[in-house]
Design goal:
196 residues; Sortase, Chain: A; 2 helices; globular
């Protein structure tokens, strides 16, 4: 009996250590991916302009000044693409275009870019810098929460305007719900590409 209890205690201790270490390990992995993506981002103008950015490749740099977020967003929302921290829903417009640009991100692992997205308020800025332009969005409403099967936040919100929707799991550490926040495009500037 004593050996069984000792074995169980060791197994529980190892399991607890693994649970605590997992978020830190994924953060280190995401940082490595972000470093690689930053180097690739500078030379990605051609694929961006041709709309041929592949899943897992850099699409835009996202900055959320209020939250201290500065992350390269990749194309796609597959599990491997989201190891970078944040990914663009492929069936939504590109930054600056009409419609609803949608980006998913992690809250508790892989760099946690959306860890504090519940703190966003109307008026907060979200800046998306692509290889060919810079687009500033302004949050228009407090974050909302929906069931994980409710796709309404990322469906086209208003084709006459340009919007951005961020989504993540909710509450932190759980996928029971999806938290989302919407912003509207307030400024857009085009940049010259390196080839121009």
């Amino acid at each position: 009996m004593r050996r069984s209890l000792t074995g169980l205690a060791i197994a529980l201790a190892l399991g607890g250590t693994a649970l605590i270490a997992y978020p830190f390990a994924t953060d280190l992995w995401a940082q490595r991916i972000q470093n690689d993506l930053s180097a690739q981002f500078v030379s990605s103008a051609h694929s961006y302009e041709a709309a041929t950015v592949r899943v897992g490749k850099p699409l835009t740099r996202m900055e959320i000044p209020k939250l201290g977020v500065d992350v390269i967003v990749v194309e796609g929302t597959t599990p491997s693409a989201l190891h970078a921290g944040a990914g663009h829903y492929p069936d939504t417009p590109l930054p600056g275009e009409a419609g609803n640009v949608a980006i998913a991100g992690h809250r508790t692992t892989y760099g946690r870019p959306f860890n504090r997205m519940d703190e966003l308020e109307p008026g907060d800025k979200i800046i998306l810098t692509t290889p060919v332009g810079k687009h500033t969005y302004e949050v228009v409403a407090d974050p909302g929460v929906v069931d994980p099967t409710d796709w309404s936040p990322i469906l086209d919100y208003n084709k006459k305007g340009s919007y951005l929707t961020l989504t993540s799991c909710h509450p932190e550490g759980s996928a029971d719900y999806r938290i989302w926040v919407r912003a509207e495009l307030v400024d857009s500037t085009q940049q010259l590409t390196a080839e121009a």
